[in-house]
Each structure stands twice: as structure tokens, then as C-alpha cells.
Amino acid sequence: MATLTASNIAPGVLSSTPRLPKWVPWAILGGSAAVAAGILFLADSASIATIVSLTVVLYALSITILSRRIEGSRYATDRFATTLVVVAFGLALIPLVSLLGTVLAKGLSVVDFQFLNTNMVGVFGEMTEGGIYHAIWGTIMVTLTATIISVPIGILTAIYLVEYGRGPLARGVTFFVDVMTGIPSIVAGLFAFTLFTLLFGPAYRAGIMGAAALAVLMTPVVIRSVEEMLRLVPNELREASYALGVTKARTIFKVVLRTAIGGIVTGVMLAVARVIGETAPLLLTIGIAADANFNVFEGRMATLPVFAYRQYQQGGIGVDRAWGAALVLIVIVMLLNILARLVSKYFAPKLDR
């Protein structure tokens, strides 16, 4: 029996099925919106949400029926599935766009140079002075310290699980990593508070306490993301390195990690984004301060999440400061993700010849 390939299929067979013109889906969408708006206005129950919902239902039914009659069941199913995916994507965007819009609307009116360059020393009640300079640096210092703690542990643990881990120990490590992934943030804060209280006494407060709590939350995320990236590295690269007489350790650090560096950096930034907005563990461990503190080993420190929480709790002008702090926190996360993209692009292996 002859094998059916693209070269021996009669010309025109693959394209013999009639297709809808590209303008038809857009026309159906516009017609569905018009019909939905007319029906709901006549029923005196028109709103943006109801019009959009009825438009989606009418469009899905119309495009599926028309496609089935003209293009066949296969293309009709494809168009129906595409509609569902687009609708799901749109629903997922609604809370994101709403959140960003609210933060921008309420935060832009507060954020200026004075707000970014002053602290809360001497600011009381409804005074309009005061800013988040100390909270910005506190967030950076605490998060950076947590990253320094968690990233080496996470990468080395992932290397062990992928390259060396066999038997009960590896299964136990994997189990505990899965358990740590789901622990509440307040539990991490209680752990750090108890640990440093036992070591230095109940009066001790320092940024390292918050960094330790955040590191507990970051480490399992780093392990999981790095582990998946290392498993994606082809074994042929390892075998080629071994064939040249390179040791396993050097192969891991020079070949495997270098190949997966883009995914590793992305995973680390996901872990940073996971913890940079945490409030409960920082509120429990390092509290709040009115002035900037650059020593993570001594004294309380202010962070943007705790600052926003405390200011919103005070009410009045504090609510405006809270929205401004939230906007700056989002911008910091965005800048960190851009930096991660640049780092992964620069250090990724060049495949062009």
C-alpha cells in the first residue's frame, strides 16, 4: 500500500473544503452585539456585563452553526473551542485590568518626587507631608537578603534532585518541597519569629527576620522552577560533555546551568514576585519604622506592603499613601521582571552560527 504523503496528494484536495471569509466572524460579532443590545434594552435590563455576556452566547452559537453548515463539523468545533479560549482569556483579564486601573487612578495622584524622597519622621495625623523613601529601601533590602538566602539553596537542591537524587532521600526532599510550597505566609513569619527569639531574645527585631521568613516562602518556588528547567536540558549535551572527559560537576555548572539560565532567572523572578508583596510575615517579624534603616541585622525596617497596610488602617490621608505605595510596589515588580528578561537574554547560549 502506498504511503500517503503531501507529495502524492492530488492538488486541491487539502483546500477543497470551503472556508468562511475572514470578515464573516467580525460581522457575526458585530451583529451579535447589536442584537444583544436591542434585546436587553427592550427588556430594560441593559448593562455592560449583560450585553457582553449575551453577545458571547449569540456569537458562539451563530459562528458554530454557520461553520458547521459551510465548513463542516471539524472547523465548527475548532471555531467553538477558539471562542471559548478567547472568552476565558478575556475573563482572566477583567480582574487584572480592573486592579491596574484602580491602582493607577488612585496612586498617580499621590506619587511624586516628594513622596518618593521623604520618610515618615515627624509626620502625624492628617499631615500631607511624608513619603515612602524608607519603605522602598526596606523592601529592596529585605527582598534582596531573602533572595541571597534562598536562591543558592534552591538551585543546589534542584541540582541534587535532577542530577544526583535517587532513593528515599530524594523522595523525602521532593515531598517536603511540595509541602513547603503550600504553607501559609503567616506560618513562615511565626517560624522566623520563633527562631530569632530563641537565638537573640524576645526584644530582637531586624530585617534579617523578615528576610528569613520570605526565604522560607521563596525556596520551594525556586527549587520547583529550577528543577523543571534542568529537566528540559537534553541529555545529549551531558553525554557530549562526558565524552570529552569533563567531570560531572563541571558539566553541570558549565553546560547544564548555562543552557537553562534563562528559565532559572525567570523562576527566581517568579519567586521574588511571590514574596515581595507579603505583609503578614513582615508585620509579625520586623514591623514598621518611620525612618530608613540600611542595616538588615539591627533595628526595625519599613517595607512597602506593611507601610500600605498601616496607612490604609489609619484612614484619611493614609489611604492615599497606601495607594501610592501599592503603585510603586507594582512598578518595582515590573522593573525586576524587565531586568530578568535582559539577564536571561544576555546569558542565554547563542544558537546562531
UniProtKB/TrEMBL annotation:
Annotated CDD domains: TM_PBP2
Q: Can you say where in the cell this protein is located?
A: Cell membrane
Membrane topology, from the record: Multi-pass membrane protein
Keywords, A to Z, come to:
Cell membrane, Membrane, Phosphate transport, Transmembrane, Transmembrane helix, Transport
Membrane spanning residue stretches: 23-42, 48-68, 80-105, 135-161, 173-200, 206-223, 255-276, 322-343
Q: Name one Pfam family in it.
A: BPD_transp_1
Is Transmembrane a UniProt keyword of this protein? yes
| Domain ABC transmembrane type-1, chain residue ranges per copy | 136-340
Q: Which domain of life is it from?
A: Bacteria
**Where are the annotated coiled coils located?**
none
UniProt cross-references to InterPro entries, sorted A to Z: MetI-like, MetI-like_sf, Phosphate_PstA, Phosphate_transprt_permease
Q: Give the family per the record.
A: Belongs to the binding-protein-dependent transport system permease family. CysTW subfamily.
Its annotated function is as follows: Part of the binding-protein-dependent transport system for phosphate; probably responsible for the translocation of the substrate across the membrane.
The name of this protein is: Phosphate transport system permease protein PstA
Q: Which organism is it from?
A: Populibacterium corticicola
High-level lineage: Bacteria, Bacillati, Actinomycetota, Actinomycetes, Micrococcales
